[in-house]
Amino acid sequence: MKYIELPPLPALRAYVHLIWCLEFDTATEFGPPERIAPDGIVEFVFHYRGKMAVRFAGEGFAPLPRSSIVCQTRRYVEMFAPGTVGFVSVRFRPWGALHFLGAPVSELADQVVAAEDVWGGIVGELEEQLSGAAALNERVALVEQFLLGRLCQHRKNQVETAVRAVWRHKGDIRVVGLCRELGISERTAQRVFRTAVGMSPKSYARLARFLHACSVLRRPGLSSLTEAGYECGYYDQAHFIGDFKAYSGMTPGEFVAARAFSFLTIE
């Protein structure tokens, strides 16, 4: 199995967190399905051999399109490799994918969309080039050039400040306080967040608080679940447990014991 993480070109770094590549020949190399928490992150996935299978919470496994856009805002997904697979995936910063799309992220929320449905026939040309490339570095270069072309067409006003404000508070902030801090109206905040991350500012803050709680629960020497919940802004156990069940399908206690679970670390 080959797994590689690469920094994007300097021109893409304001929007793209990293580009990663995965190759393996058999399903046993990948192992059992991996559960991934919703995180508001959009990924572009470009297969050049075989295809991963994915299922959103409450659904069955289905193969990804050869090239796809995956966006999670409310539901976890599970990834599974049915056989030989090779792909290049672009992991955006929470505010980044918007600048490569012709539509708000809210139109992609909690679903897998075929890249061809968004960008048209140029995706097929990229797929042929990826299949014919001889090495991973060539494939990554092809994907980066594709992204630069889309960025030239779709770049929009920056929204990073609004998203980072929620991160700074680790989700423990009300919309009124967020708007006061940013100096914008609630109506503007609603538009910015739905366009950039696919959900309302209240929903994004709730998700950010959950992701922070995931990090707290994975700390060595965790004292108690109750104290962890209070630290993360959960003032009663019902909301603490409710968020974990909604976003991960597990209670906080089950999450602590389940190591095959990936989540975004709030910086």
Q: Layout of SSEs?
A:
Elements: E1 2-6, E2 16-24, H1 27-30, E3 34-36, E4 42-49, E5 53-56, E6 62-63, E7 67-71, E8 77-80, E9 85-92, E10 111-114, H2 115-119, H3 122-132, H4 136-154, H5 160-168, H6 175-182, H7 186-197, H8 201-217, H9 225-231, H10 237-248, H11 252-257, E11 261-262
Parallel strand pairs: 3-11
Antiparallel strand pairs: 1-2, 2-9, 3-8, 4-7, 4-9, 5-6, 5-8, 7-10
Give a brief rundown of this model.
The protein has 267 residues and is α+β, with helices and mostly antiparallel strands. Helices cover 41% and strands 20% of the residues. The strands form 2 sheets. A 6-stranded antiparallel beta sheet has the order 1-2-9-4-7-10. Strands 6-5-8-3-11 form a 5-stranded mixed beta sheet, with no helix packed on it.
Q: Please provide the count of β strands.
A: 11
Overall, the morphology is globular
Helical run tally = 11
Mean pLDDT: 93
Query: How would a crystallographer describe the biggest sheet?
Result: 6 strands, antiparallel
Share of residues in helices: 40-55%
Helix vs. strand class: alpha+beta
N-to-C span: 30 Å
**Strand residues, percent:** 15-25%
Q: What is the element string, with H for helices and E for strands?
A: EEHEEEEEEEEHHHHHHHHHHE
If you compute it from the alpha carbons, what radius of gyration comes out, rounded to the nearest whole angstrom?
A: 19 Å
Query: Stretches where pLDDT falls below 50 for ≥5 residues?
Result: none
- Record the strand order, biggest sheet: 1-2-9-4-7-10
